[in-house]
């Protein structure tokens, strides 16, 4: 059997063309398929971002340790806050940053400060100020305070599942954020409920909220 000639191979290649939809219905079907594919990729990408961020324990030296206040929408937040304070005290003792910043509504700040002092953080190195009740509102105030002080980097302490959204929010405002989620406590587990809730919140942030934010720290 003789092998095909070079001319016949070229002719066959020339006859092979990519067929694109030429009708309106074909274009609409292709567009719908593309949109469905993108919509399926968004939650998958968000879940991957949440799971990967939850594993980070970045102890690079920064200018402040920012302890995010837990949400009160899902029960008693005191155990989660206590675990975050424990972790912040550990970071301080390890020399990660010289200051611990407490966020959230003004309440029980004396008790929170007392917990940090009992774990080796000097009272003068604990900064408290009222912030918003959500992640965006909190970081907007934190960014302004850091900008006024000439700071740019912060170690963010929160729950592992919340770390991805915290990082995205802080970075959008110009904060050089380093993640170190709490390793113990009620919020440290990547439960399906927590991850599902954060997946929706993270997609909402990327699709809507982030476009309304402006860098505070430049």
Please give a structural write-up.
The protein has a five-stranded parallel sheet, sandwiched between helices. It has a single domain (54-212), classed as Rossmann fold (3-Layer(aba) Sandwich). Helix 3 (78-93) links the parallel strand 1 (65-67) and strand 2. By secondary structure, the protein is of the alpha/beta class. It is elongated, with a radius of gyration of 25 Å. It has helices spanning 6-15, 24-54, 78-93, 109-118, 135-149, 163-172, 192-207; strands at residues 65-67, 100-102, 126-128, 153-157, 176-179.
Main features:
218 residues, 8% strand, 7 helices, 5-stranded parallel beta sheet, Rossmann fold
List the helices and strands and how they pair.
Layout: H1 6-15, H2 24-54, E1 65-67, H3 78-93, E2 100-102, H4 109-118, E3 126-128, H5 135-149, E4 153-157, H6 163-172, E5 176-179, H7 192-207
Parallel strand pairs: 1-2, 1-4, 2-3, 4-5
Quick one: CATH class? Alpha Beta
Structural class category: alpha/beta
Record field, number of beta strands = 5
Helix content: 40-55%
User: What is the second-level CATH architecture?
Assistant: 3-Layer(aba) Sandwich
Counted up, domains total 1
Compute the gyration radius: what is it?
25 Å
User: How do the helices and strands follow one another from N- to C-terminus?
Assistant: HHEHEHEHEHEH
CATH topology: Rossmann fold
End-to-end C-alpha gap: 72 Å
- What's the tally of helices? 7
Pick out the low-confidence regions. none
Beta-strand portion reads: 5-15%
Q: Give a short account of the largest sheet.
A: 5 strands, parallel
- Identify the strand order in the major beta sheet: 3-2-1-4-5
Overall morphology: elongated
